[in-house]
Write a structure and sequence with these properties.
The strands form two sheets. Strands 1, 2, 3, 4, 5, 6 and 11 form a seven-stranded mixed sheet that branches. Helix 6 (193-211) runs antiparallel to helix 7. A hairpin with a 2-residue loop joins strand 5 (148-154) and strand 6 (157-162). With 308 residues, the protein is an alpha+beta fold. It has two domains: 3-163 and 298-307, Ribosomal Protein S5, domain 2 (2-Layer Sandwich); 168-296, GHMP kinase, C-terminal domain (Alpha-Beta Plaits). It has helices at 61-73, 95-110, 117-132, 140-145, 180-185, 193-211, 215-221, 228-231, 238-247, 269-286; strands at residues 3-13, 22-38, 42-47, 78-84, 148-154, 157-162, 168-174, 252-255, 262-266, 290-296, 303-307. The protein is globular. It binds L-homoserine. The site of L-homoserine (HSE) has 12 residues, from helix 5.
C-alpha cells in the first residue's frame, strides 16, 4: 500500500465538566487527508483549503505528529500529505486534533499498523502542543478511538473508551476565532476546594449517566463551575443559547473545547433540529455570523476511505 485517504472527524473536548479529560468524536464536520509513502525521506505537506496554515513540517500540527511517529519508526521513510480542512481552525471543534490524528492513523496503515492506538495518541499530542502550547489528549483520543473517551492520565497515557447512549448533537459556531492558547491563558491557575468538589461530583455523574443511559443524570452533571464562567465571557449569546436550548428539551451542553462553538445534546433528531432553529434565531438577533451543525456521535474515529 502506497497511498491512503482518510476522513478525520471533529471532536468536542471537555464535555463541559471534564476539562482536558473527556472528549467525543462527531460524524460531522471532518477533514479530508491523503497520505503517500515516498522514496525520498522527509515530509512534504500541502494544504488545499482556504486557511493559510503553515506547511513546514515542524510548524504544522500534522507534521509535528508525523515527525514523532517517524522518530519511533526508526527506519528512514518519506511522506507526502495533502490536507483539505473543513473544520475551521480556532472553532473549538478539534481542528488541530483532526489534522494530527488523521496524519498518524494514515501513516500507521501505510507502515503496516505497527503502532497501537495509544501510541498514535502519544504522537498526535505533539500536534496539540504546537496548536495550544501544551499536550492534551481530549481531542486526539476520541478522534482516533471514536466515541467518547476518558483520559485518566496523559503521563503515562491511560485512555478509557466509554459506553455512551446514542445522542444527537447540535452545534453553533459563531464566526469569531478563539485561539486555544489564549483561552487557556485566561484561566485561573488555582481552584477553590468547594468548586473542585462540585466538579468531580459532576464528572463522576456524567460518566455514570453515560454508562446507565440516564439522560437526567447526564443533564444534571453537565455543569462546569471552574472553566465555563471564565471562557463564556468570550462567546456572544452563550447564556441565552444554553438557557433557551435547555428549555426546549436539550439534555444539556456548553462550550465545545476551548470555544467559541457551543454544543447541546439531545435524545432524538427532532429535538436536535429544534435546537438548531433556536440557535439560529439567537444569532440572527444579535447579528453575529454563525454556522450550525446537527450531527451524532462518530463511533469509529478516523475513517479510511481509499487505499492504493
Ligand atoms: N481541553 C482543551 C481546552 C481542549 O479546553 O483548552 C482544546 O481544544
Amino acid at each position: 500500500m502506497k497511498k491512503i485517504k482518510v476522513l478525520a472527524p471533529a471532536t468536542i473536548a471537555n464535555l463541559v465538566c471534564g476539562f482536558d479529560i473527556l472528549g467525543m468524536a462527531l460524524k460531522a464536520p471532518f477533514d479530508e487527508m491523503t497520505l503517500s509513502l515516498t522514496d525520498e525521506p522527509g515530509i512534504v505537506i500541502k494544504h488545499t483549503d482556504e486557511y493559510n496554515l503553515p506547511e513546514e513540517p515542524e510548524k504544522n500540527v500534522s507534521g509535528a505528529a508525523l515527525l514523532a511517529l517517524m522518530e519511533e519508526f526508526k527506519k528512514p521513510v518519506g511522506f507526502h500529505l495533502t490536507i483539505h480542512k473543513h473544520i475551521k481552525p480556532g472553532s473549538g471543534l478539534g481542528s488541530s486534533a483532526a489534522s494530527s490524528a488523521g496524519a498518524v492513523v494514515a501513516a500507521n496503515h501505510l507502515l503496516g499498523n505497527i503502532f497501537s492506538n495509544e501510541d498514535l495518541v502519544r504522537f498526535a499530542m505533539n500536534g496539540e502542543k504546537i496548536a495550544g502550547g501544551v499536550k492534551h489528549a481530549d481531542n486526539v483520543s476520541p478522534c482516533i478511538y471514536g466515541g467518547v473517551t476518558l483520559i485518566r492520565s496523559i503521563f503515562p497515557l491511560d485512555i478509557i473508551p466509554l459506553n455512551v447512549p446514542d445522542l444527537f448533537i447540535t452545534i453553533v459556531h459563531p464566526q469569531i476565532e478563539v485561539r486555544t492558547s489564549d483561552s487557556r491563558q485566561i484561566l485561573r491557575k488555582e481552584v477553590q476546594l468547594k468548586n473542585a468538589i462540585k466538579q468531580w461530583g459532576n464528572i463522576g455523574g456524567l460518566i455514570m449517566g453515560f454508562m446507565k443511559n440516564d439522560f437526567d443524570l447526564i443533564g444534571r452533571s453537565m455543569e462546569d463551575v471552574i472553566i465555563e464562567p471564565v471562557r463564556s465571557i468570550l462567546i456572544p449569546g452563550f447564556d441565552e443559547v444554553k438557557l433557551k436550548c435547555k428549555e426546549a428539551g436539550s439534555i444539556g451542553g456548553g462550550i465545545s473545547g476551548s470555544g467559541p462553538s457551543i454544543f447541546m445534546l439531545s435524545k432524538d433528531e427532532e429535538t436536535a433540529n429544534k435546537i438548531e432553529g433556536i440557535m439560529k434565531d439567537i444569532y440572527e438577533k444579535i447579528e453575529v455570523d454563525y454556522k450550525t451543525y446537527v450531527t451524532a456521535i462518530n463511533t469509529e474515529g478516523v475513517k479510511i476511505v481509499e487505499a492504493q
